[in-house]
């Protein structure tokens, strides 16, 4: 039974929001829990949208966080298909698009992120796609199937995780695929130059073409349809459809209009997410943020802010924020983690080691066979590790990162030396 003495409101019906609602109940909160989402669907997970659901292996029903009936059973009040359009901090109220005004005692902003748009001529043509929502994936799935049937051509802007996963899905339908990427290798800003080439090889083996060192300049169309992509080095790539996979921007509009503090991006420019402390609290003591939209002070990074756009951060950050909203002691110090699947390659990455932060990369295992672990080190200390088609090592990798022990690269590279033994 809900007693209405307190109302906790969650804006954002993604994984972070749904898991926060679940945690409020599992921690025994008996007040009202209201979950607001501008999407019509119940909260769902996004990773399948560029993998199993997109390539046709997973059913639509498999992506949802909870069964639809769970929300009523758990007394979670849903406002689906309704954007929260205004946050009145003085009155502690959120207004929805349909005019409904909802009072909160505590508020969680879990508004996620949205795809960045190409700012070039031709982006309004019918065959230009983005991938964030289930509806996008439904549409893209149909597009890839028909490109496969008709020998059609997909040109993808961006060789990041989503660009590469969609390239793999598109090849599984038999579509022609070209990926355009300004950096010299795929995944450059995550993996650096040392390992990006491996992903270029993997995709080339499956028939993907790459055009590195160039960006989109124009999407050329005729009668509203895509004909080709012109890159800024003057080349033209035939295209029937285009996917813009150039990253995502945190959805901070509501927070910003309400005067909450925002973080800078890592390059110092604004737009880095809602600034929260290690308990995921904003500069307003009754408002929290979690998931893709939150830039949290990370205890393992000396309190520097990090915005992590990955599934595990929504899965764990939503519950952490919920516990903090309930007044529990929270210091959210999860090591960033993500996974990816492309063709027969599955990987997990733990840590944070953008180019410039590490001075050595060490591999253990068979890189050529794509069965290995890569380690990024700085002065002998582990910053990040990625296991590729090697499993059950994430915990050890994360322990090594946390331990900050100085490691011998020869031991790290030697599969005969158990990772656990390096902790001593
Ligand atoms: C195609 C794709 C594939 C991915 N694959 C992986 C993967 O393999 N591994 C991995 O680690 N991560 C992956 N991710 C990232 C992962 O899905 C995200 O980190 C995760 O979805 C973040 O969850 P969230 O709840 O913070 O935000 P979201 O999932 O974005 O949910 C936010 C919700 O809030 C809603 N909303 C926003 N503003 C408002 C408002 N004002 N009013 C009401 N509702 C609002 C949004 O519409 C959305 O429903 C992938 C992401 C995508 C898009």
Question: How would you characterize the overall build of this protein?
Answer:
It is built from 9 helices and 27 strands. Helix 1 runs parallel beside helix 7 (311-325). The protein has 3 domains: 7-114 and 249-325, FAD/NAD(P)-binding domain (3-Layer(bba) Sandwich), CATH 3.50.50.60; 128-246, FAD/NAD(P)-binding domain, CATH 3.50.50.60; 344-423, FAD/NAD-linked reductase, C-terminal dimerisation domain (Enolase-like, domain 1, 2-Layer Sandwich). The chain has 424 residues and is of the alpha/beta class. The longest helix is centred in the middle third of the chain and has 18 residues, at 188-205. Helix content is 23%, strand content 31%. It has a 5-stranded parallel beta sheet with strand order 3-2-1-7-20. The protein has a 5-stranded parallel beta sheet with strand order 9-16-10-11-12, with helices on one face. The site of flavin-adenine dinucleotide has 36 residues, from helix 1, strand 2, helix 7 and strand 23.
